[in-house]
Design a protein that fits this description.
alpha+beta; 2 domains; 4-stranded antiparallel sheet
């Protein structure tokens, strides 16, 4: 073998020794987290689970949240009385931030942040006249039990 061939082989061995533990470590860490969090191994990356199992549907007249247990919560836009953010100290391994869309009396929706369609929901409710973005920002920084009112229908 020539000197250059030996040098190339030595370089490949060094690279393998350097990168193999990192690749194996990442693979094993992902497998452990999958088991600990009880997530399916083929769950889409970058999406929160179980939050993404909640599906938001919006129409011109109403917003609905389809929960994984089959329950559907709905509030009509023209009956929406209040938009709040509920935060808890349960994170990061459990849902800890929820939209509370309150309608008259017993109607409304409780939607976890990370639900499928939540970006579109945020875009829609931020267009409500008088939506308090500062309250929303404060809620996003909260790590304790609290309720932040971001919008309320004028009396």
């Amino acid at each position: 073998m020539s000197f250059l061939a030996l040098l190339g082989l030595a370089l490949l061995v060094c690279l393998a020794l350097f990168f193999a533990p990192r690749i194996l470590g990442t693979y094993l860490a992902n497998r452990v987290l999958t088991k600990v969090l009880n997530q399916p191994a083929d769950a889409p990356r970058g999406r929160l689970d179980p939050e993404s199992r909640f599906v938001i549907q919006m129409t011109e007249s109403a917003v609905s949240c389809h929960r994984p247990d089959g329950v559907v919560e709905t509030v009509r836009w023209d009956e929406l009385q209040q938009v709040q953010v509920l935060t808890t100290s349960d994170g990061p391994f459990a849902p800890d931030c929820f939209w509370l869309l309150r309608g008259p009396e017993t109607t409304g929706c409780c939607i976890p942040q990370g639900a499928t369609g939540d970006a579109e929901l945020l875009d829609r409710i931020q267009k409500l006249p008088g939506f308090d973005n500062l309250a929303f920002i404060e809620a996003m920084g909260s790590t304790q039990e609290a309720i932040f009112t971001c919008w309320q229908r004028p009396a």
